[in-house]
């Protein structure tokens, strides 16, 4: 990335220092699209505030001269337990955003959960370890399921992440007030030379009754898809013990505790609050991952102590992307990784296996 201050990417002291830099570069509509949540944004605040209710209990006089962040996840060896979450609308943040993030993930040796479109990066031999995300559109018939699974297997995908909490378009007040057209998330906000916007073709609006032309996926869909592929299948959007138990019963490989960055159903609480009951229900039978509000190494350490195998981030690396492109994404990962290692050393846990629930207590 060069010497400190050469291009500014090394100047931020923490990942959240990237947010004002990103805001200064982004169109206001794009920033609101990135930073906002749904409705009252209560869950958006809860995701962050939940970490403040958990206190670390450091261990003294442990040999921590070497810190090991490595782990194995579904047979893949990872250098550290930080994954890149899927995030739509990357082109609104930076040109060719999905592929730029894929290259950053490869350089940083991070597993990338992608919305798709990174095949050229993968074929170049310089792509990241990756999972493909789906919202279930490919699950409509057994034939489309098999085709989808076969394509991903052929392309070298190492897992499938099924997002289960996005069956309807949520009510996002910021986007509605901005008359944001969802297509702009893929193309960028199309202002002309005078800063004017065209009339949006399909603006987000309030008061639209929810409907879908076809039935939405069910647990039967999960069972059917599980039968057509051996790839790991992770369900993203699980927040309760009941659904965690159903995941195990239906052959799901792993769970991603998530409230979609607080962008879908509001008032569901912070994901860290949901993590203990999901971990308890799973009873170690499948890995549990978590996203939502991770901004510091201590945040990651707390989630690992509550039983998460790894954590995922989205907004932090998107702020890095918007501010500096690929180097910004890589720097955000570097800051979080080094903060986690430092915090582990200060807490007296030299490796991930040494982290357990005795390392934390609730206020």
Topology:
Blueprint: H1 18-25, H2 28-35, H3 42-49, E1 54-56, E2 71-73, E3 76-78, E4 82-84, H4 97-108, E5 112-114, H5 119-123, E6 130-134, H6 142-155, E7 160-163, H7 173-177, H8 184-187, H9 219-226, E8 233-238, H10 241-249, E9 254-257, H11 271-282, E10 288-291, H12 297-305, E11 310-313, H13 315-324, H14 326-347, E12 360-362
Parallel strand pairs: 4-11, 5-6, 6-7, 7-8, 8-9, 9-10, 10-11
Antiparallel strand pairs: 1-12, 2-3
Helix pairs in contact: 1-13, 4-14, 10-11, 12-14, 13-14
In short:
The chain has 363 residues and is α/β, with parallel strands linked by helices.
Write up what this structure looks like.
- With 363 residues, the protein is an alpha/beta fold.
- The protein contains 14 helices and twelve strands.
- It has helices at 18-25, 28-35, 42-49, 97-108, 119-123, 142-155, 173-177, 184-187, 219-226, 241-249, 271-282, 297-305, 315-324, 326-347, and strands spanning 54-56, 71-73, 76-78, 82-84, 112-114, 130-134, 160-163, 233-238, 254-257, 288-291, 310-313, 360-362.
- The protein has an eight-stranded parallel β-sheet with strand order 4-11-10-9-8-7-6-5. The protein has a two-stranded antiparallel sheet with strand order 1-12. Strands 2-3 form a two-stranded antiparallel sheet.
- Helix 1 (18-25) packs across helix 13, helix 10 (241-249) packs across helix 11 and helix 13 (315-324) packs across helix 14 (326-347).
- The longest helix is centred in the C-terminal third of the chain and has 22 residues, at 326-347.
- The two termini are 40 Å apart.
- The model is unreliable at 1-6 (pLDDT under 50).
């Amino acid at each position: 990335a060069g010497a400190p201050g050469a291009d500014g990417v090394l100047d931020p002291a923490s990942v959240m220092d990237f947010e004002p830099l990103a805001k200064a570069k982004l169109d206001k509509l794009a920033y609101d699209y990135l930073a906002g949540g749904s409705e009252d944004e209560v869950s958006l605040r809860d995701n962050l505030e939940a970490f403040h209710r958990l206190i670390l209990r450091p261990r003294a006089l442990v040999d921590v001269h070497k810190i090991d962040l490595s782990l194995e996840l579904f047979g893949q060896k990872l250098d550290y337990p930080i994954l890149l979450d899927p995030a739509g609308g990357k082109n609104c943040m930076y040109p060719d955003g999905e592929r730029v993030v894929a290259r950053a993930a490869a350089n940083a040796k991070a597993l990338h959960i992608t919305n798709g479109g990174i095949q050229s990066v993968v074929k170049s031999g310089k792509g990241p370890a990756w999972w493909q995300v789906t919202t279930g559109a490919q699950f409509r018939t057994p034939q489309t399921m098999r085709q989808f699974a076969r394509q991903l297997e052929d392309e070298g995908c190492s897992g499938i992440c099924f997002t289960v909490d996005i069956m309807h378009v949520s009510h996002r007040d910021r986007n509605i007030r901005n008359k944001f057209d969802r297509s702009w998330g893929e193309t960028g906000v199309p202002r002309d030379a005078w800063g004017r916007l065209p009339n949006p073709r399909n603006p987000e609006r309030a008061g639209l009754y929810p409907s879908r032309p076809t039935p939405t996926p069910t647990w039967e869909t999960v069972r059917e898809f599980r039968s057509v592929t051996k790839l790991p299948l992770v369900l993203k959007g699980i927040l309760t013990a009941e659904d965690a138990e159903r995941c195990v019963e239906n052959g799901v490989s792993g769970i991603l505790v998530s409230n979609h960055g607080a962008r879908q159903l509001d008032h569901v609480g912070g994901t860290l609050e949901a993590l203990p009951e999901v971990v308890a229900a799973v009873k170690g039978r499948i890995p549990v991952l978590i996203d939502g509000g991770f901004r510091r190494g201590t945040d990651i350490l707390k989630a690992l102590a509550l039983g998460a195998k790894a954590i995922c981030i989205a907004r932090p690396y998107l702020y890095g992307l918007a501010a500096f492109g690929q180097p910004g994404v890589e720097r955000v990962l570097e800051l979080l990784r080094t903060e986690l290692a430092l915090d582990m050393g200060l807490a007296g846990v030299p490796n991930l296996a040494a982290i357990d629930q005795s390392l934390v207590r609730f206020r």
